[in-house]
Amino acid sequence: MEVEGRDFLNTPPMKTVRFGGSVAETMEKLRKGDNSDYELLKHQLADPDIKDAQIINWLQEFRGCMTQLTKDHEQLIYTVLRLPWVGRSPGVVDEFMAFLSNLVSAQTVYLCACLKMVVSHFTPKRVNICEGGVDISDSEDEDDNLPRNFDQCHQALQLIIRYVPSTSRFLMPILHDGFPFIQKSSRTLECYVHNLLRLTVYIPSIRRDVLELIIGRLLKLDVSASRTDIEEAEDDVAQKHPEEGLFDM
């Protein structure tokens, strides 16, 4: 998971033409009191069916006016951070990495928001199952690409650390808050713990704190579990081969 040699800060954005004006033009109109294009931009960015090409074009434009994106535009930034970049095409992933690098370098006020966004991808996403317009279930998405998606998250964190060396000071509270509730599935907990352990490889300064967090939460899980559930889980593990696990540790 190498990130060296990728100079995102100096990669120039492509010029694009889009209906509604560029991001820079939208920001200028907002400065003059016209927020119509600003609201339209947020609406389009939040489109669940947004295409890869649209994401790339917008991110390139945002990179071109990064110094204008101050604390006053946090709603817009939060909308951008919610873009579905993990698991998308290489072009989207690379451009989002470039956007993150530029953002934390030019506007450190958004550092914690960026960290929270990345950590939120440490567990599988859930999908709502509906019938007849009625939400009847909230089941886990069986995504075979989880290891690749997690690789991208850790690459993003390494880039943030590269541009903001003090990142580790702000990370632990976010890891605490992001830890799944003990009522979540074992798969969700497994993914989160796996990603916490990966963090300790390239951020050794938080290794002790991470291990204390994991052990503390597992103790709470152990206390809340019934003896029957524990025995059944042990039987299941005994019948499986190590290579059938989701991750190689």
From TrEMBL:
Source domain of life: Eukaryota
Pfam families, sorted: RRN3
Family: Belongs to the RRN3 family.
PANTHER family: RNA POLYMERASE I-SPECIFIC TRANSCRIPTION INITIATION FACTOR RRN3-RELATED, TRANSCRIPTION INITIATION FACTOR IA RRN3
Descriptive protein name: DNA independent RNA polymerase I transcription factor
